[in-house]
Structures are given as structure tokens and as C-alpha cells.
Design goal:
Number of strands of chain B: 2
Structural class of chain B: mainly alpha
Distance between the termini of chain B: 61 Å
Number of strands of chain A: 0
Largest interface: A-B, 29 and 36 residues
Structural class of chain A: mainly alpha
Helix content of chain B: 55-70%
Shape of chain A: globular
Radius of gyration of chain B: 19 Å
Helix content of chain A: over 70%
Number of helices of chain A: 3
Oligomer: heterodimer
Chain lengths: 58, 191
């Protein structure tokens, strides 16, 4: 779990939208994101999606 | 019609839109809204003017929708949900020969806040939601529109937390891909 690839990181980013990750998961994610622009963008998109769904409802 | 009753009725269109989005079934949405308005009238005395009519009705609607989905969950679609949790269609987004890097690097979405204000963007959102597997869309809406917590959804739909995460992950992956292709424009750069 210490070294994540993009597939694993993207899953964790999604999971983080629904529950608090463990300390180990958060640490592994931080390490991955610090070096990965693609996953950082994906993470931002998940937040954009959430905002879009709230807007959609209202 | 009492003043409050006409205020309730004025929200019918809004409630219908939410229910329709959530249930993806016009008849069922109409039924749920009808039940909501009747329940609201029956409990009129409990309505306190300090909360808005819209918020109050949305609260009632939420319960009615959860009931409707729970009923649905007893029908064969549960196993469908299970099946949707098990399909493995997301591997195409990653390159297994390259340590599962993104096959196409996610693009930077410029000015998403501004886009959210646009009617066309919401129409695109509709289009993309419609392309999701139906039960996946329902679960996603429960989480993001009804704002149910994960454990509430698992309880209502009798699915495991792991299945729920897989379903939500799929919904997000497919939605972001759809929006990126049709709205935000795709970067050809390889990630």
C-alpha cells in the first residue's frame, strides 16, 4: 500500500469523498499526489463533480 | 386552498425534478411527489415558518424517495446492483503495461465554477448521467444529490461498503470522462 499507482490512487481519491481514509492511506496518497499531476487533476475533478451535482439539484 | 397549501404546490415542479432525477421513472416520481405533498399537508401544523418551505418539503421528499428505492431494492434490481458492482469496465482508463498510469491524463478543467451557472452545462450533465448504468446512477444520486452517508446507503440497499465504493468510483470515472469529452475538451497529452 505504501507505493500507489494511478489506478489505486484514483480509487482512494474517490473513496475519500465518502469516508475518512486511514492515516496510512492518506500518507500514501499524499506521496503519490506530490509527484502526479494527473491524479491531482482527477482529485480536483471529483470536487467539481460534487459541486456540479449540488448545483444540479438546486 | 390554504396559503401554506398553495406555497407547497408552488414547489411541485422542483420536487418533481429532484424525484425524477433520483428515481429515473416519471410515474414513480409523480407518485412520490404526490405523497410528499399530502404528507406535508397532513403535518402542516408541524411546519415552522423559520425553515423554508422548500427545505422542509425536500426533507420529506428524501424519506419518500428512500422508501421508494427500498421497495425497488426488494425487486430483481438488487442483483442488478450487485452485477453493476462487479463489472470491470474501468481498466481501459489505465495502461496495465505502464504500471497502471492513466491512459489519457485527466485535463485541467478551466473555470468549472462559471460553467456550473450555464444551462447547457446542466443539460450535458443530464446527458452524461443518462449514460451511466441505471443503478449506478441511482446510487450516485443518493450520495451526491440526497447526500446520504455511505453507511445509510449500504443499509438501505443491503450492499457492502466495498461494493458501494466500487459503484461510486465507476459513476465518477464515467461522468468525468463524459464531461471531459463533451464539455471541457480533452488533452491529448499522455499521462
Amino acid at each position: 500500500m505504501l507505493k500507489l499507482n494511478c489506478k489505486e490512487a484514483s480509487r482512494l481519491l474517490s473513496q475519500a469523498m465518502d469516508q475518512k481514509l486511514t492515516t496510512t492511506q492518506r500518507a500514501a496518497l499524499r506521496v503519490h499526489l506530490s509527484a502526479c499531476e494527473a491524479c491531482t487533476r482527477f482529485g480536483a475533478q471529483l470536487h467539481n463533480l460534487r459541486a456540479a451535482m449540488r448545483k444540479y439539484r438546486d | 386552498m390554504s396559503d401554506l397549501a398553495s406555497q407547497f404546490n408552488a414547489q411541485r415542479g422542483y420536487l418533481l425534478r429532484v424525484a425524477q432525477l433520483q428515481l429515473r421513472d416519471r410515474d414513480q416520481a409523480e407518485d412520490v411527489v404526490q405523497e410528499t405533498l399530502l404528507a406535508a399537508l397532513a403535518a402542516e401544523a408541524k411546519f415552522e415558518a423559520k425553515s423554508s418551505v422548500k427545505t422542509w418539503l425536500t426533507g420529506i421528499l428524501k424519506h419518500k424517495i428512500v422508501d421508494a428505492i427500498r421497495k425497488k431494492a426488494r425487486e430483481p434490481s438488487v442483483s442488478m446492483l450487485q452485477q453493476e458492482a462487479e463489472i470491470d469496465d474501468l481498466d481501459v482508463f489505465f495502461n496495465e503495461h505502464d504500471n497502471d498510469h492513466w491512459e489519457t491524463k485527466p485535463a485541467e478543467w478551466r473555470n468549472p465554477e462559471r460553467d456550473l451557472e450555464q444551462r447547457q452545462f446542466m443539460q450535458m450533465m443530464d446527458f452524461c448521467l443518462d449514460k451511466l448504468p441505471p443503478n449506478t446512477a441511482r446510487v450516485f444520486m443518493l450520495r451526491e444529490v440526497m447526500e446520504l452517508e455511505s453507511d445509510e446507503i449500504c443499509q438501505e440497499l443491503k450492499i457492502t461498503a466495498t461494493n458501494l465504493w466500487v459503484i461510486l468510483y465507476r459513476a465518477r470515472m464515467l461522468l468525468r470522462k463524459c464531461l471531459e469529452q463533451n464539455w471541457f475538451g480533452e488533452t491529448p497529452a499522455h499521462g
